Amino acid sequence: MFITYLIYFFTWIFTIYRMSLSNLNIFNKNLKSIEIPINVTTLAPFVFDDCDQLTEIKLSSSLTTIPEGCFAFCPNLKIVNIPYRVNLIDDYAFFNAESPTSKLSEVFIPESVTTINSNAFSGNVNLVIYCKADWVKKQLENEPDFKGKVVVT
User: What's the pLDDT at 97?
Assistant: First the structure.
């Protein structure tokens, strides 16, 4: 709950800077759950990286990008629903260094995503990605470090 208020506070401060959390890195690495407020349109690269207790995220429907390394090394994160406005999932966004203990099991990618950069999901050995676009399956399955499975629905 405290972290939610902290994010609301930083959101209010960064409203002046085009509604973004662009120069913020979360220093509390013991986060278990996070909800990004609707008025947040941008996250900083690596903002939640190495939050190894994080199990749940609810992303703002206003986001258009999942930035580089944003949720890297979050081995307890379980399920991610990418919001419909997102069009880019950047490098190492959900990278987990092939940890056999990585719990990321499901990611739902909407049709709005047009670019997934390298190693965005690498190292998540138990991951199943659900998408509607064949290109996502082809791209991810051709990445040498992608260990998951892609299901086109």
Answer: 75
* SS3 assignment, position 15: helix
* Distance in angstroms (rounded) separating the CA atoms of residues 118 and 96: 13
pTM: 0.82
- With H, G, I as helix, E, B as strand and everything else as coil, classify residue 13: helix
What are the residue ranges in the chain where pLDDT is below 50?
A: 9-24
Beta-bridge partner residues of 58: 35
Query: Terminal CA-to-CA distance of the chain, rounded, Å?
Result: 35
Least Cα distance to 78 among 99, 106, 59 occurs for 106
Q: How far apart are CA 143 and CA 71, in angstroms?
A: 19
Greatest pairwise CA separation for the chain in angstroms: 42
Alpha-carbon 94 to chain mean position: 6
* pLDDT number for residue 31: 83
Instruction: Return the closest-CA partner of residue 31 out of 9, 52, 8.
Output: 52
Quickly tell me which residue has 């081995």 as its tokens.
75
At a CB cut-off of 8 Å and minimum separation 6, what does 72 contact? 46, 49, 50, 92, 93, 94, 95, 96
Distance CA 95, CA 22 (A): 20
Tokens of 136: 């996502």
